[in-house]
Structure formats: C-alpha cells, structure tokens
Amino acid sequence: RQVVLSGTAAAIEGAERAFAAEDIATRRLRTSHAFHSPLMAPAADALAAFLDELPLREARLDVWGNTDAALLPSPPDEVRRVLARHLTSPVRFREQIDAMHTAGVRTFVEVGAGHTLTGLVEQILEDRPHTAVALERPGVHGVTGLHS
Q1: Dihedral, 98, 12, 38, 117 alpha carbons, nearest 10
Q2: pTM (2 decimals)?
Q3: 36 within domain boundaries
Q4: β-strands 107-110, 70-71: how paired?
Q5: If you average pLDDT over residues 96-107, what whole number do you get?
Q6: Burial of 113 (0-12, 13-18, 19+ CB in 10 A)
Q7: Fewer beta carbons below 10 Å: N end or C end of the chain?
Q8: What is the four-CA torsion angle of 71, 66, 58, 47, rounded to 10 degrees?
Q9: Where are the extended beta strands (E) located within 18-148?
Q10: 3-state secondary structure at position 65
Q11: CA–CA separation, 4 vs 19, rounded Å?
C-alpha cells in the first residue's frame, strides 16, 4: 500500500512529478539523509569501520534483518557486513513480516518512538493470527508501555 523512495532531492522531485501525472498521491517524508540508498555509502563505510572494532559474538536469539527479509547470519563478521550494508540497501519490510509469520512468529513489539511499524504489521498480516504492540504510543512513555 505504500512505497518509500530514497534519493537526491532532484530525483525525488522527478518521481513526484511522474506520480502526479499518473494521479498517484505522494507524501514527502522529512528525513535528514537519503537512508537505504547508495547515497549513504560514506556513512556505511564509517559504520563498517566502527563495527569492525566492536567485539561481537553469535546471537542467542533469532534476529531478523529487513534488507534481506531473513534471519541475520550467525558469524559476527557476517553480521557486521549485513549491518553496514543496511544503510545503503532497500528495506523489505513487508517481505520480512511475511517471512517471520511463516516461520512462526506471532508477537511483534515495536520498540522506539511512535507506532508506525505496528500499524504496518497490522496492514501486512491483516486477519492472520498475530499480536502487534507499540511500547511508545501517544501519551504513553515507552517504559510505561513496556509495563502495561
């Protein structure tokens, strides 16, 4: 039901014009950078260098990545590679949620500001069995939401 484009201001303006010509509604998101696009390559390189210095060990829980819509690999060096690539890769959120549900995940908890992703999970899974909860909702601090 929605697609997020990322690119230069000129490219986004061109896309907006093309969509308008086809009577397709658009809404520009306010972001500081062109996340999940090749324009983030310098930041991805810096993140990779930072991650190389972190002592990582294999995860004890399943961790899903939304650029591959799959479980993150176990070897720490592969985790570093996937995380650094995340800045320049498209997000495959719908595919990730579908894959998680197919794998048996039924509880989705949004941690962080807002509840946008919880709404997207609801749209994606519709009437399939699941529970989706945002810890931080309007008027409810995240810690309070965790305890409620």
Answers
A1: -30
A2: 0.83
A3: no
A4: unpaired
A5: 98
A6: exposed
A7: N
A8: 160
A9: 64-65, 70-71, 107-110, 131-134
A10: strand
A11: 13
Helices in 1-107 by DSSP H: which ranges?
Answer: 9-21, 41-53, 76-86, 93-102
- Listed in sequence order, the residues at least 6 apart from 81 whose beta carbon sits closer than 8 Å to its beta carbon are 48
The alpha carbon dihedral of 127, 113, 77, 91 has a sign of positive
pLDDT tens digits for range 24-78: 999 998 889 999 999 999 999 999 999 999 999 998 999 999 999 999 998 999 9
Which two tokens mark 103? Answer: 């794998």
Q: How far apart are CA 17 and CA 19, in angstroms?
A: 5
- Paired with 134 in beta bridges are 110
How is residue 133 written in tokens?
């909860």
Are the C-beta atoms of 71 and 20 separated by less than 8 Å?
A: no
**Which of 111, 70, 125 shows the shortest CA–CA distance to 92?**
70
Range of the domain at 1: 1-30
> Looking at the 3D structure of the chain, how many domains does it have?
1
Say if 9 falls within a structural domain.
yes
Domain assignment of residue 20, yes or no: yes
